[in-house]
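Exercise 7b. Backbone tokens:
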């Protein structure tokens, strides 16, 4: 079937309306009419080929919320009219040890991304959520229980939400833990909300004094301006866990010094240039660790959505029209968004 979308034909070309093809639903497929799609920084990196390997035409978008409009004959868990979501993955091998454990994000044969992933469908690579409709295997569709008026703000949970939720859960963040969230942006603002809801003492780190009140409003118990050496020093050796969402290269020692014995600094941002090599003394003498994390499996993503529905958690968003994607990207580069753009997909039709 032909559906309308917004995409780009080259790294240096603006977004434009396109007609794309979606497959007819197979026995295990769910067809979704997309209502909203969040705008992730990964979309920008891919569309502008900043990571290399982008296949064109490129239709980004992996924070998808919409309604089921058709299901395959073998689909049992979804029906027409259901409110559902699709995140960063639309397939995986389903037979490796990671997939068997529900950790599709670590698929040993490589998960299929919601866009720019290999597929048998035309044009040979997946096309994402900046479109009117998508057809996805039922194994990669998620149930959404938030009320209708919150659905636009739910969209970023499908990437920003799970990217922060997964490490918080894996490292058992909760009451009695002192937790730091570095960076108050699309990811960081979700990290603050989630860590606070999990019952941890939550400390937000920002380079900007102007974000202090914003971080408190998001649920932080304390805010540290990381450029203030005295503020940083006061917290030395006291953190159980620090989630670092900053994607720019920077000095990790500033944060490993803050870890207590057996503390962990987890990185979820991928910098354009490597971080300076950290001082291993900060790790060795405290049995501390630097670790990494990426999104979450489908079961954990569903758990995150349910947790957020139960706790009334959504992203802070700014709604845009599809025609404004290029301008939104330019603002993202400048950090001019609080804290996530979301496309109203009804505007894709023109």
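Sequence design result:
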């Amino acid at each position: 079937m032909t559906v309308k979308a917004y995409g780009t034909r080259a790294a240096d070309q603006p977004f434009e309306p396109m007609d794309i093809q979606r497959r007819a639903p197979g026995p295990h497929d769910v067809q979704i009419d997309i209502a909203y799609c969040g705008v992730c920084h990964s979309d920008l990196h891919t569309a502008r080929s900043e990571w290399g390997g982008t296949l064109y035409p490129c239709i980004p978008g992996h924070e998808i919320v919409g309604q089921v409009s058709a299901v395959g004959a073998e689909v049992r868990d979804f029906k027409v009219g259901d409110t559902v979501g699709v995140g960063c993955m639309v397939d995986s091998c389903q037979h490796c040890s990671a997939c068997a454990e529900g950790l599709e994000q670590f698929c040993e044969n490589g998960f299929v991304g919601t866009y720019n992933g290999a597929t048998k469908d035309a044009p040979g690579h997946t096309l994402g959520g900046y479109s009117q409709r998508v057809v996805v295997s039922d194994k990669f569709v998620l149930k959404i229980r938030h009320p209708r008026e919150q659905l636009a703000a739910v969209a970023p949970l499908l990437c920003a939400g799970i990217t922060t939720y997964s490490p918080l859960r894996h490292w058992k963040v909760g009451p009695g833990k002192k937790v730091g969230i570095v960076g108050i942006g699309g990811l960081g603002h979700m990290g603050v909300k989630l860590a606070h809801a999990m019952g941890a003492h939550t400390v937000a780190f920002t380079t900007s004094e102007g974000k202090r009140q914003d971080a408190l409003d998001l649920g932080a118990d304390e805010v540290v301006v990381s450029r203030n050496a005295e503020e940083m020093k006061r917290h030395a050796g006291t953190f159980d866990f620090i989630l670092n969402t900053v994607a720019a290269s920077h000095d990790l020692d500033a944060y490993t010094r803050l870890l207590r014995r057996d503390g962990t600094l987890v990185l979820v941002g991928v910098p354009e240039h490597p971080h300076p090599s950290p001082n291993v003394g900060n790790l060795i003498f405290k049995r501390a660790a630097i670790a990494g994390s990426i999104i979450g499996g489908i079961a954990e993503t569903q758990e995150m959505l349910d947790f957020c529905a139960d706790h009334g958690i959504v992203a802070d968003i700014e709604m845009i029209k599809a025609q404004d994607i290029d301008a939104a990207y330019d603002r993202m580069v400048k950090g001019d968004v609080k804290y996530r753009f979301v496309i109203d997909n009804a505007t894709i039709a023109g």
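Instructor comment: The chain has two domains: 2-159+314-349, 161-292. The longest strand covers residues 29-39.
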